[in-house]
């Protein structure tokens, strides 16, 4: 769909209306403002695509601004991870900014508010302040320190800045309206004391601004035209505007906050607190575990940035929250990988096949197409020999007419190779089939051009030559939760819905072309799904992750049940 054909979302309509009402296109500027207190997840990806997408649409700059106002939870590691995630998704920012860049300016503005009688130092405990906030239907009570003199407030605030008080001893509050119907307007806290080193300013500061005070003023400093937030910040808009009212210069652009609905993903949680619990409990190996909804986890699993961008574009921007089925994300992953992933043959549950009429010790190398969706991908050679592996589930001694795989007396075609016929099988002491003896038709090779090669059989199996196969660890990932809304149950903890079978490790046997695969390389294991080489891999110990199955088997099972 071209840019002209695509309908505008409501955020784009807001921008278009602003342009009609006098905004100059050169004044447009957007920003993505993550807090560096954790790893980004799929919800952040939608926000990244929205803000940077607007930048691309309107040829406007987009800032990457870190709202780094809480040194107790922030680390440089998270800053670097966030930058890597944004770049991996395919975007670049105009300016890298930090709220900490503005600490001096924010402090000076806070002093101005004190001088205007619009901010004061409160010496109550956090519990006392909370008790006086009131309820949505009952007005709050004024602090006994609300009417301190300007001089006393200035002296106390400077002493707070100089580190003369303990944490929790004082806070700076805006003086607004304790009777407001919006509880956020009831004298919100602007600064608190924290004797903790900051990842950028070290110990230069021991007072730190709160989010609501920092965010709008940072937008103003950067001259961001449209500050886009998720819907939970809608009640904050009144406070956002109140703070700007106190300081904005009419000659400068005034930022506009607007809100869009968070899109929740089924079978997933995105709360940082809950994701951390999964890590700490050992349900996953870390923030980049391929089962995690973090961007680093999705990248490690083999998702492509194109598929995530396409997913974000498909679900669009809305005014109401809803749950998007994760199968839609998986659809976009399959759709893209189908175009770019080379086809290879790997057996995960091996059963030995012996071609009894193939000369022992002989081998031949057969042509195999790399990707029928991409003619430029070319072809490769795969070895054929007397002893092969096929999947155990691809053989039965007896089967009905609907079973089109290998059975005694039946024929199948080996992918890129010959037609074989099962003549007999061998069992172990427990009655398990351990080997199948077959004969092959030497005139039936795929692509040989002979009349016999056109002979049709209904089943085609993937396989690998045993003498040439390489063993590797294959991790079969499933959804981390077996409930569509794991954190949507008031009477149950989300941990109760963790899927105990979300990871299965098996040994796979690979065709030799995969020996040189490197971490991050993506493939379609024919008939099995899409896989990528894990970052844990080495030349001595290859590890593959299942990115996604070939089709949405989970959804079909849910419908069946």
Automatic annotation (TrEMBL):
Its EC number is 6.1.1.18. It comes from Flagellimonas algicola. One of its GO terms (molecular function) is ligase activity. It catalyses: tRNA(Gln) + L-glutamine + ATP = L-glutaminyl-tRNA(Gln) + AMP + diphosphate. NCBIfam families: glnS, PRK14703.1. Monomer. ATP binds at residues 35-37, 230, 270-272. Residues 341-441 form the Glutamyl/glutaminyl-tRNA synthetase class Ib anti-codon binding domain. The keyword Metal-binding does not apply. L-glutamine binds at residues 67, 211. Coiled coil: none annotated. Keywords: Aminoacyl-tRNA synthetase, ATP-binding, Cytoplasm, Ligase, Nucleotide-binding, Protein biosynthesis. This is Glutamine--tRNA ligase. A motif ('HIGH' region) lies at residues 34-44. InterPro entries: aa-tRNA-synth_I_CS (IPR001412), Gln-tRNA-synth (IPR004514), Gln/Glu-tRNA_Ligase (IPR050132), Gln_tRNA_ligase_bac (IPR022861), Glu/Gln-tRNA-synth_Ib_cat-dom (IPR020058), Glu/Gln-tRNA-synth_Ib_codon-bd (IPR020059), Glu_tRNA_lig_a-bdl (IPR020061), Rbsml_bL25/Gln-tRNA_synth_N (IPR020056). Residues 28-338 form the Glutamyl/glutaminyl-tRNA synthetase class Ib catalytic domain. Belongs to the class-I aminoacyl-tRNA synthetase family. Pfam families: tRNA-synt_1c, tRNA-synt_1c_C, tRNA-synt_1c_C2. Residues 125-145 are annotated as: Disordered. It is an enzyme of class 6 (ligase). Residues 460-534 form the tRNA synthetases class I (E and Q) anti-codon binding domain.
């Amino acid at each position: 769909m071209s840019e002209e054909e695509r309908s505008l979302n409501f955020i784009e309509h807001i921008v278009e209306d602003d342009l009609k009402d006098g905004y100059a296109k050169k004044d447009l500027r957007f920003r993505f403002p993550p807090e560096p207190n954790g790893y980004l997840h799929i919800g952040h990806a939608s926000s990244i695509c929205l803000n940077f997408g607007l930048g691309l649409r309107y040829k406007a700059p987009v800032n990457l601004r870190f709202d780094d106002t809480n040194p107790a939870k922030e680390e440089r590691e998270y800053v670097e991870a966030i930058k890597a995630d944004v770049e991996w998704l395919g975007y670049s920012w105009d300016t890298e900014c930090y709220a900490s860049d503005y600490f001096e300016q924010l402090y000076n503005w806070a002093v101005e508010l004190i001088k205007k009688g619009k901010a004061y130092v409160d010496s109550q405990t956090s519990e006392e302040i909370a008790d006086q906030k009131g309820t949505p239907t009952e007005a709050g009570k004024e602090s006994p320190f609300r009417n301190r003199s300007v001089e006393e407030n200035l002296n106390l605030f400077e002493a707070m800045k100089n580190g003369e008080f303990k944490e929790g001893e004082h806070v700076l509050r805006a003086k607004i309206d304790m009777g407001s119907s919006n509880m956020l307007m009831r004298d919100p806290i602007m600064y608190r004391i924290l004797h903790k080193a900051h990842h950028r300013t070290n110990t230069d500061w021991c007072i730190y601004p709160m989010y609501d005070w920092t965010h709008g003023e940072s937008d103003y400093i950067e001259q961001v035209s449209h500050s886009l937030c998720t819907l939970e910040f809608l009640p904050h808009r009144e406070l956002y505007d109140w703070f700007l009212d106190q300081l904005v210069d009419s000659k400068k652009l005034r930022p506009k906050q607007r809100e869009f609905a968070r899109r929740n993903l089924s079978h997933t949680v995105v709360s940082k607190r809950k994701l951390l619990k999964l890590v700490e409990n050992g349900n996953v190996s870390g923030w980049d575990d391929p089962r995690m909804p973090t961007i680093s986890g999705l990248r490690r699993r083999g998702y492509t940035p194109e598929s995530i961008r396409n997913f974000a574009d498909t679900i669009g921007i809305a005014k109401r929250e809803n749950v998007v089925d994760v199968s839609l994300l998986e659809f976009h992953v399959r759709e893209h990988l189908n175009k770019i992933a080379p086809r290879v043959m790997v057996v995960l549950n091996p059963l030995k096949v012996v071609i009894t009429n193939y000369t022992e010790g002989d081998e031949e190398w057969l042509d195999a197409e790399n990707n029928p969706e991409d003619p430029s991908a070319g072809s490769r050679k795969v070895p054929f020999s007397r002893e092969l592996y096929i999947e155990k589930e691809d053989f039965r001694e007896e089967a009905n007419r609907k079973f089109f795989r290998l059975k005694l007396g039946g024929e199948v075609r080996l992918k890129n190779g010959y037609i074989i016929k099962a003549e007999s099988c061998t069992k172990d002491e427990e009655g398990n089939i351990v080997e199948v003896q077959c004969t092959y038709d030497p005139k039936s090779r795929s692509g040989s051009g002979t009349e016999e090669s056109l002979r049709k059989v209904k089943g085609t199996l993937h396989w690998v030559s045993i003498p040439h196969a390489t063993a590797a660890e294959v991790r079969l990932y499933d959804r981390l939760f077996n409930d569509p809304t794991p954190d949507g149950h008031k009477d149950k903890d989300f941990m109760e819905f963790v899927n105990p079978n979300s990871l299965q490790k098996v040994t796979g046997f690979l065709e030799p072309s995969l020996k040189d695969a490197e971490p991050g390389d993506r493939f379609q294991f024919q008939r099995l799904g899409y896989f990528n080489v894990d970052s844990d891999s080495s030349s001595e110990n290859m590890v593959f992750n299942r990115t996604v199955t070939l089709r949405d088997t989970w959804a079909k099972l849910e419908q069946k049940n």
